[in-house]
Amino acid sequence: MKTHFFLLQLLCLSFYLSAHAQVMDLSGTWRFAVDRNNEGISAQWYLQTLNDQVQLPGSMITNGKGDPVNLATPWVGSFNDQTFFKQDRYARYRTPDNFKIPYWLQPDNYYAGVAWYQRDIEIPKSWKKKSIHLFFERCHWESRIWIDGKEVGMQNALSAPQQYDLTNYLTPGKHTLSVRVDNAVRDIDPGENSHSISDHTQGNWNGIAGSMYLEAKGNSYYKQLHVFPQAEKGDLTIKANICNTTSKRQKIDLIFRLKDTETTRSYTIQPGDNKLEINLPMPKDIKVWDEFNPNLYTLTCTLQKGKEQLDHREITFGCRTWSIQNGQLTLNGHPVFLRGTLHCASFPLTGYPATDKEEWLRELRICKQYGINHIRFHSWCPPEAAFQAADELGIYYMIECSSWANQSSAIGDGKPIDDFIRQEAERIVNAYGNHPSFCMMAYGNEPTGKHSNDYLAQFVSYWKENDSRRLYTSAAGWPNLPVNDFLSDSNPRIQQWGAGVTSIINAQPPSTTYDWSGYTNKFHQPFVSHEIGQWCAYPNFHEMQKYTGVYKARNFEIFQERLKENGLIQLADSFLLASGKLQTLCYKADIEAALRTPGFGGFQLLGLNDFPGQGTALVGSLDVFWEEKGYVTAKEYSRFCNSLVPLARIPKLVLENDENFDATIEVANFYRPLQHPQAIWTIRNVSGKTLAQGSFNIEQLDLGNCQPLGHITFDLASIHKACQLKLEVTVDGRSNDWDFWVYPSQKQVWDDSLLLTDTLDQKTLECLQNGGKVLLSLKKGSLSKEMGGDVAVGFSSIFWNTAWTNGQAPHTLGILCNPSHPALKYFPTEYYSNYQWWDAMSHSGAIYLSKLSKDIHPLVRVIDDWVTNRSLGLLFEVKVGNGKLLVSGIDFHQNMDKRPAARQLLYSLKQYMLSEDFQPSVSLQPASIHQLTQR
């Protein structure tokens, strides 16, 4: 389907170009040669006829060129984890006939270095005395051009079109155009993990993508046109650079048309560049542009000499003004909150960025369905079509200048990358600066360098002085410089790099009261939190069939094969759904904490869709194709991620029935001011029965967050059985909800007919031998390393992934259970982790079941990291001797008076053990059980 659409796009482009005689389409068949030894210049390949062929636009990979990947492939991207190259379990994947790498998507072929592209062109007679320019929309990476053996020049833009002035090289008639493309990282190093070049994302491809053509212009033409709409002042400023290619002064007319108004200005221009600033009156009925009203207007700019049209441009723009007021982000004078995700240049079908607007419209519409209004382009900048789509839909872009100067690179130290970033920024602004969706800009991501702060301060200062159409910050992640319009900082998020199980969601009992004001109050600029979330879900192996292009999910094949070998393949879909539910809960917590923070500027997820590299980071609620995985819908997600979100500060989500449930209700409203909005709340049980309800009398709801609606207190004394309840708040038709749990406050008494112990001592063995029933509850930390003690269990899902983070905790993805199992009869639960499992996960070890018996099917399973895919359990049952043994990785011994969820779970297990349902089918010897605690 995508191939057919691409062909249709090329046909439409060809029709457009042929219908305008001043443009010559260069797409199609090109002659080609690989220059492995970089000898083409010295051997004068530009004077020879190359003997291979490729189709452009395209890359070597899409044309089936390059080498099979293997251990010698010169990947661009760091390996934080070397296990693939060392461990025996990966040996089978290091062979030439079965090579599979687990760290990112794998291309069919690979080539880093020089390749040559060549074709003949016929310049029409009508182009005589015209200015002729070559346009490559997206060339990767460095290009050098020859016409008939004469070198024209070199360009190395990564994120903007490469354009050459060929006027002095082309005359009417036949010519040979030779293009040398080099995709190897040489003197200029943006950083090996930069998404503009790295194999972690789009891949280090060699070729030319998007539009490619020759264009003939008059002897004077627009070199640059920048539009500065100022609705508040009622005028439009145009900054033009007009190039006069003649040796004489020329009298020209500039004719501007906007809506029904035409304005003509006359100038005398000198030979060479002429920079002009023109002020035009703005029509009074012009409306502002934002996410809700993406009003667009077209300004036509005609350059004439007498009656001869020399150049003609149409500029689409929107009227919008970004500013900082009282430490808050504002757009058109109103507070705005950025609900962002990252776009990391992942295009697995082609390996290079999409240049058709329909694909970008598809992706951005999905983002809007999930409540996203903002996209940060991590260390790269998208093509023109992406801006056009965002203009139409009202998406706020943050653009970066192709660099993540870290690991292999640094900025501010006088290396070639310093000048490259400055030049890349100029190229990006010149190419895309008129788009209203181009709202923010940074150098790139997470920089390093001894003098990087000075360099970045100069970078921001320069752009703030020279182009006021957007906001600027030094970099994504850091540093927090005084000159920044806003701060991009990772501190305002739940999980920090290296936090492990000490983060809020893992170390503190469940609540929804926390926000980031304790940190943000230290600064005067607004915050946009950097790369929040990074919560993983299990791989969706059905996704592998989607990789019908040049990249394959060989990493998924590795993970799937290990799951099969461990006898768990039948659980793959369940692992995906259960871990996905936990992932969604974690994202809801992160997003709501940002929305609860006073004056906060917004957040940037990493991300709404999966990141295919850096160890395989399955952090998306959507897959890399921006499609659902089956565990959360856009409708569900947008309840907590939207322009208007009801919020509840709830001190405790796990309570006893001698307490009150308390919630302070507020709202984040960045939609529109509302008069007398309906605001109601209900508390229901899982059957949908309403237990309490009420409303708030709201006169007016302004724009902003932390707007109080009222307080809810619900007496739990009438609840006598363990239950899961839900608070739902609806404001102006927008709803959000929170689960909470209520357990009986009376202390449960253990039954004397059952033995509760933490060790398999002689007393316990005698009990079992005599046909007794035993609950072996291991104390936290007592599980031996060999039996799972080295598995770091937390409540949250895995952060990013264990390979890229050097094994950071947690190592697991929540629980999987059968909610209908009689052991859980008195402990209400779904099949996945919710907050009632926080206590169990926080006081437990994951038992490595396969080392006991592959026949054990646990009552509660822990979902392991997809890299290791071990069979792990929290609760399982076996026969030992004549007795029945229930083994718990959950500690039911320590601080039980402060752990209502643990007491309730223990009660449920007790009732199960007393019932006829407790009938273990797998037998184990005592020696096997002893392994659990042997050191």
Automatic annotation (TrEMBL):
UniProt protein name:
beta-galactosidase
Q: What are the protein's UniProt keywords?
A: Glycosidase, Hydrolase, Signal
EC no. given is 3.2.1.23
The protein's matches in InterPro entries, at most eight in alphabetical order, are given as:
Bact_Beta-galactosidase, Beta-gal/glucu_dom_sf, Galactose-bd-like_sf, GH, Glyco_hydro_2_cat, Glyco_hydro_2_N, Ig-like_fold, Ig-like_GH2
Q: Where is each Glycosyl hydrolases family 2 sugar binding domain found? A: 25-209
- Domain spans labelled Glycoside hydrolase family 2 catalytic: 324-535
Q: Pfam families, from UniProt?
A: Glyco_hydro_2 (PF00703), Glyco_hydro_2_C (PF02836), Glyco_hydro_2_N (PF02837)
- Can you name the source organism? Caecibacteroides pullorum
Give the residue range of the signal peptide: 1-21
